[in-house]
Amino acid sequence: MVSSKHTVAWPPNWASRRAAAGALCAALGWAVAAPAVLAQPAGTSSGAAALPRFDIPAGPLGPALAAFAGAARINLSFDPALAEGRRTAGLQGAWTVDAGLARLLAGTPLVARRDGANVYTLRLLPQESAALLPAVRVEGADESARGEADGIVARRSAAGTKTDTPILEIPQTVNVVTRDEIAMRGARSVVEALAYTPGVYAPGGSADLRYDNIYLRGGYAARNNLDGARLPYGAYSFGMLQIEPYGLERIEVLKGPSSVLYGQNTPGGLINMVSKLPTQTPRREIELQTGSYGRAQAAFDLGGPVDEAGQWSYRLVALERDAAQSAHYSEEDRTFVAPALTWRPSAATSLTLLGFYQKDHQVPLYGNLPAAGTLYSNPNGRIPRDRFAGEPGWDAYDREQYSAGYLFSHQFNDTWTVKQQLRYSHMRGEARTTVGYLLDPVDMRTWSRTMARGQGTGTTLSVDTQAVARFRTGAVGHEFLAGFDYLDMRDTYKFANVIAGVPPLDLYDPVYGRPRPGVRDLIPRIDAVQRTEQSGVYAQDQISYGNWLLTLGGRYDMARSTTRNQLTSGKVAQSDSAFTGRAGLTYVLENGLAPYVAYSTSFAPTGGTDYESNPFQPSKGRQIEAGLKYQPPGSDSMVTLSAYQLTQTNVLTSDTTPGRPPGFQAQTGETRARGIELEGKAGLARGWDLIASYSYVDAVVTKSANVDVIDGAPQSREGKKQFYAPAHQAAAWLAYKVQDGPLQGLGLGAGVRYIGADWGDAANTLRIPSVTLVDAALSYDLGQMRPELRGVSLALNASNLFDRTYVGTCVTATACTYGAGRLVLATLKYAW
């Protein structure tokens, strides 16, 4: 064996790393085990704030490997005979060590084995192994912010900076749920995928499958983005798209004010979903699923290069589902297809065309029930959880949605890169409901109802153009981002209902199908058309100096909206502008610890006028956040601990000025949320995976003119708790896959979720009790049993395993909903 070694001048002190890791794990109260093999992680700052850069021309493999080892400052050992007669396409630009080696060795039967910290050995795969085994991925080798993450731990994200940045270096909390985690837990929706993420709350749990309504950090509704582009969010929460999670590579939660990058937004944060994109390596997967209530689902995910040169690659994801939520009348059907095509004419240029089409038909189990019999006792007993309070043949929710756009990137040189993304999204939907509004106070079982129909559309066109410059001024590194984005959002909504003639329902002995009003009997109540335009210019600089990282950003937005009342021919126009910013400081230690502190602001236009017809000013948010992130170099783990104080001003409250009639509002309100969030994810040794999270929030109304009459006495809302903000939430998931022996390939997983008590209304009169739920998973890789079944796997997932009955939320005493009961899914998958 001939050794070609390149000695590094900075061997990591592993003993000190272990000491620091032990101290942190003890402080956080759990164990995060790091594997024994380590490598410098991509993008960490330990005097190497930027990735190593390479300029290795195409040619013989041996000299190229020697040049690589010298530039990367690693020990690379190999027999020169392995490289003899082999060539490489070369390597240019900034790469991680693992990704660079993989690129140099592409097209050869050689792989690099990591033997220790910055120590690698080249070896030859046996011919039969090379033919049968998929490519072995080194941990974190080629992860990008828009790409697949290997396992449950993501290392990079673009949600917090709009650049491909290590999460460790982002001075803001970013939680990521990867594709592997979505599949491992069998999540049916984005809400279910985020069930183990700290500080994320979905009223009613996953009982309402029509929308992904998520609240962050103190009861602030999160806005949804897809690949960084804003999705429709109607004025009446009707024009919302729901994204099929099977078509997603990851789901990212950006906590706190984020207007500096995305414009108008609530101060709690946003959800960014990342689509499955074309891949350079072939990917083929077929999935069949069945489960509770006759569920039948088929899906496939195909992708890979189109031509031998690799200039063209594709991805095609599709799903068809016929399902229900209960044994009584509910339906949950979906058709989904998402094509994508990437063209790479050169290493510097990339254009991806992508889109999706989705059609949903649902008869939701979600419906209003009275508090008496759900939240409170009823002399007739508890109302059954699967009681259908609507009217079969009338109640339904239908939605058709589609989206199309492109992602473009061109690197002019080592300094400048230009990017642009465009997305057009549209949905139209109709909801027909039979909603209860009064429980008979005598028999406590007769439920008076109204028939209603809502029809609406939601459309967005967004364009975001960016220029990124990476350069150095002496010892200071810069990643400078400047951009301009434009958003055109249109929303229509019609609502009509009728009370007279609607038959009441006995909630304990229901009889359906009685004579009821027809569509022509519905009385129009709302017919609104709204258009909102936003344009913003922003700049950001990620400045690195040694181990210090300073992130500075600023943005100026102009927003205008017009709302037309088609019933009265009234029109309200409003224009707003605002400056928002962020400043964050991070210090990245060599052992993977990264303390940070940040300040950020946000704004959101507020529609309407006050008593004197003055347009309302935008509500504004500001947050101070401090935290600690920990990612041991070379490990498959990430721990994030953050503390924050978030304040929202210009909140609408009742106008109580003497002499003015009731019904008007003023911007005299203020809310404040203080909390801590803790999340740990780790791919542990020998097949173990761990997810753990905890959040605490104290969210209160600090200023308000609103007064509620409770027990006959007026009470101010000042000091009241925010609703949709449980003080405590916690979750933990532990999974194990047998590595050897007769049970090799068997996977086991179990999780527990605690959702603390919450208030269902602003007056704090409806107390929603806490609940603890248990989930479980079982899987088996059939290829471990028989070689001809390689790629075939079975999975069994159960949510709310013990079928716990609980109240998800109550908005009023006549509008309560149960959380989802036990659901069992069985999935057969073949990947090759």
UniProtKB/TrEMBL annotation:
Q: Which PROSITE patterns does this chain map to? A: TONB_DEPENDENT_REC_3
Record keywords: Transport included?
yes
Q: Which residues form the Secretin/TonB short N-terminal domain?
A: 74-125
Give the InterPro entries listed for this entry.
Answer: Beta-barrel_TonB (IPR000531), Beta-barrel_TonB_sf (IPR036942), Plug_dom (IPR012910), Plug_dom_sf (IPR037066), Secretin/TonB_short_N (IPR011662), TonB-dep_rcpt-like (IPR039426), TonB_sidphr_rcpt (IPR010105)
Bilayer topology term: Multi-pass membrane protein
What residue stretch is flagged as signal peptide?
Answer: 1-39
Q: Which Pfam families match?
A: Plug (PF07715), STN (PF07660), TonB_dep_Rec_b-barrel (PF00593)
**Coiled-coil ranges (or none):** none
Location of the protein in the cell: Cell outer membrane
Alphabetized, the UniProt keywords read: Cell outer membrane, Ion transport, Iron, Iron transport, Membrane, Receptor, Signal, TonB box, Transmembrane, Transmembrane beta strand, Transport
Q: Which family does it belong to?
A: Belongs to the TonB-dependent receptor family.
Descriptive protein name: TonB-dependent siderophore receptor
Q: Look up and give the organism this protein is from.
A: Achromobacter veterisilvae
